[in-house]
Amino acid sequence: MDTMNKLAKKMISGLLCLCYALGADGQTLTDGQIAVQNLAVSKQEDKLFVAMDLDISALKQGSNREVLFTPSLTLEDDSLSLPAVRIAGRNRYYHHLRNASDTERLYRNGERDLIEYRVTVPYEKWMGRARLSATETTCGCCDAPLTSTATPLSKLRLEKRVPTPFVPAYAYIRPKAEQKINRIEGSAYIDFPVNRTEIHPDYRRNPEELKKILSTIDAVKNDADSKIISISIKGYASPEGSYSNNIRLAKGRTETLKEYVRKQYAFPQSLFTTSFEPEDWEGLERFVASSQLKDKQGILDLIHSELAPDVKEQKIKTSYPTDYAYLLREVYPGLRHSDYAVQYEVRAYTDLAEIRRLLTNQPPKLSLNEMYLVAQEMEPGSDEYNATFATAVRMFPDDPVANLNAANTALRLGDLKGAETYLSKAGDAPEAIYARGIRAALLKNYTVAEPLLKEALQKGVMQAEDALQQIDRIKQEMAEDEECGRRGVKKDKKPTT
Fold first, then answer.
1. Within a domain: residue 493?
2. CA spacing 20 to 30 A to 426: which of 5, 154, 461, 475?
3. Are residues 363 and 235 part of one domain?
């Protein structure tokens, strides 16, 4: 019994599903005079079995007429005509007998009501997804075709479908051309004599600290493509001493540093902006908050208090003398600093070769528009193309256009997680909505994808129309495969031939 069950299971597993997509059972042909019933197609090993019953009880035709019933399999450029069935009137029937015609499937009209059609042919892979149709040709006495009609019977689902891939177009945005204003910032720790505002260039660490500022300016000034727009300096003093005196020191030292820098280059006064902070309490707060000081919280409470600066500093000194001594020695010197910034404009670039070179060597000089301009000359999806948009978003990490274009590149590469990160900063432009729809579609989340793509289409992103059509085709295939699973017929033996 077990052996028989195993054999039965093996035979059943060799017979794959046929999807009756067109409802072939009961299908009528020849103006309703021939009915196709009990259609079954199966595959086992290297053979394809086709079986159907032709009900011809309603077929009425003259003695000089005949119907040629020819099933066929077709799929794109492949096709195979199966053996035909000829149902002939009296005269045509005897004509074929007298002339030694192929009479294997020759039937005389009116002698029977049912024809059992059984065919076995060598199986080819394309047949597994083919369409089964039948052509009915009505002929007269001289074998001349009078009418010919092709009727689809069913779609075969004997081979697993290779899913249609979703291959979207990507909607990049060309950034607007704009003035390129860049900024270089830094901090210098200039040592001044106690309670004085004059600069001694050779005093303590001043040579190296002054060099930091001048080197920053030189890097821009000596670049033929750049023009300095402004130089800003902001001076800070530490909290020890009186607040009024610290105002004098911070203001005076800032002005002294500005004049020192200006005179090194003979810059006009109008190029400079200055400001000052008499006591850098914010800097002190940052250090204490990240420290392991014993009385950390008490010091922070005083820093955050509404006390006058001099009162606040004195209370820290008297309440937490040990920690204060440490702050005075190790931290306060760092609070005496001068922050500087050099703002400059970079000329526009139009030469693509020059832009390519700068992309590699000096990308901060380029605008988003210039990067996009050169990307249009690259092969979409190439390493160079992808690297360009990666550079763009690295140079402009918060720019919506840079993030959108980087998201498109990530989607091209199949990096759906990276695309998600970029899209979170891509804004709400129609192209960004479209890209979010594309990502959802690539994740096969069509419920999310379709509303986004429809919105993008309404807002003018025409690529969304093709994406929606692709999704429709994919969903149709999924529905057909699901229907196949529901309507597949199990058999425990091969059709007889």
1. no
2. 475
3. no
Same domain, yes or no, for 359 and 339?
no
Q: Which helix (H) or strand (E) holds 450?
A: helix 446-458
Tally of CA atoms within 13 A in the half-sphere of 224 that contains its CB: 1
Say if 136 falls within a structural domain: yes
Name the pairing type of β-strands 131-139 and 66-75: antiparallel
Domain range enclosing 449: 349-486
Q: What is the pTM of this model?
A: 0.64
CA 434 from chain center: how many Å? 10
In whole angstroms, give the CA distance from residue 491 to residue 5: 14
Q: Are 319 and 422 part of one and the same domain? A: no
- Regarding whether 359 and 310 lie in a shared domain, the answer is no
Amino acid identity of 156?
L
Element (H, E) at 27: strand 27-29
- Residue 496 forms part of a structural domain: no
Q: Say if residues 340 and 213 touch (Cβ distance below 8 Å).
A: yes
E strand segments, 353-395:
none
Residue 100: HSE in the Cβ half-sphere, 13 Å Cα cutoff: 0
Which pLDDT score is estimated for 26?
56
**What is the spatial distance between Cα 326 and Cα 61, in angstroms, rounded to a whole number?**
116
* Of the residues 315, 345, 375, the one at which a domain ends: 345
Collect the ranges in the chain with pLDDT lower than 70: 1-32, 101-103, 484-497
Q: Say what the pLDDT of residue 101 is.
A: 64
Q: Strands 145-156, 131-139: parallel, antiparallel or unpaired by DSSP? A: antiparallel
3-class SS of residue 113: coil
Q: Ramachandran region of residue 227, left (φ > 0), alpha (ψ -120 to 50) or beta?
A: beta
Contact 328, 284 (CB under 8 A): no
Which SS3 state, helix, strand or coil, does residue 393 take?
helix
Question: Beta partners for 80?
Answer: 73
* Tokens linked to 387: 């690297």
| 435 belongs to a structural domain | yes
Q: Which residues contact 297 (CB under 8 A, 6 or more apart)?
A: none
